[in-house]
Amino acid sequence: MGNYREAFEYAMGIEGGEFNFDSSDKGSFTSDGRKLGSKWGMTSDDLEKALGRVCTKEDMQNCTIDTPMKFYKPKYWDTIRGDEIKKQYFCNKLFESGLNGGVTSAIKILQESAGLPKSGKIDDLTLNALNYD
Q1: pLDDT grade, residue 67 (50/70/90)?
Q2: Contact at 8 Å (CB) between 95 and 11?
Q3: Which of 16, 67, 95, 101 is the most buried (most CB within 10 A)?
Q4: Domain annotation for the chain: domains and CATH numbers
């Protein structure tokens, strides 16, 4: 079955741990409207949810890999039912795609490519298709 740590490390190899402040990025605003950028693929709104408070630029700059490691599991990994997917390749791609484009969109793309109904959820039909040998 899928291994969360492997999928997380795969995604972090793409996302990287550098603080990124891109003024053209349309996302990553705090709840009070400030733009703080991202780190480890974590947007400022996700960091606020992880910290339970409005975050600062220093919070974002000082964010360690432990914060997204804990935060991403219930939000992304559990939603894609990663522990139930047999092939790590699918876990890695689906998890990383969910981080970048949203879980529902990533699942719908997968379902469409497999000729399945696009529910946007890893239902039993989708899970069986992913685990088909």
Answers
A1: very high
A2: yes
A3: 95
A4: 1-15+68-133 (1.20.141.10), 18-64 (no CATH)
